[in-house]
Amino acid sequence: MVSALVGVAVHQAGGSGPVAAAAAVGLALLLMFPLRCVHPPGGAMALVAVMGGPTVHALGWGFALVPVGLNAAVLVAMARLYRRVAAPRRVHAPVVHDNRHRTGDAAPQDRIGLTRSDLDAACAASTN
């Protein structure tokens, strides 16, 4: 959506020539870096906003909001729904270490200080 907004802004400021197209793609990529959302097809979306023709140009800012923004919102909603319904649940099986040296000490892997509850908390935090 960022790229579509940049493309519409460049088209409104500079038309739809090759210089405007290059500026839109470059500015879109330049803006995506600090936003941490670099997506190469985003450059193509900026290009479409500039070179898209009369139908795209007639939509103006609506091009970034209705087709692009709406599609992005639907994709995110479907991904969240899929993850909630169909994604497999993580099952934590305890790791069993044998005592090869027949000592009373726990295996080195068991002495690192992590517990099953630590692992569960880390997995729960990563899914939020």
Any idea what the radius of gyration is?
A: 25 Å
Quick one: biggest sheet?
Answer: none
What pattern of helices and strands is seen along the backbone? HHHHHH
What quaternary form is this? single chain
SSE-based structural type: mainly alpha
Low-confidence stretches: none
Structure description:
With 128 residues, this protein is mostly helical. It has a domain at 2-85. The protein is built from six helices and no strands. The protein is elongated, with a radius of gyration of 25 Å. The protein starts with a helix and ends with a helix. The model has no long low-confidence stretch (mean pLDDT 87).
Key descriptive features of the protein:
128 residues, mainly alpha
In a few lines, what is going on in this structure?
The chain is an all-alpha fold and 128 residues long.
Blueprint of the fold:
Elements: H1 2-14, H2 18-35, H3 40-51, H4 54-59, H5 61-85, H6 116-127
Helix pairs in contact: 1-2, 1-3, 1-5, 2-3
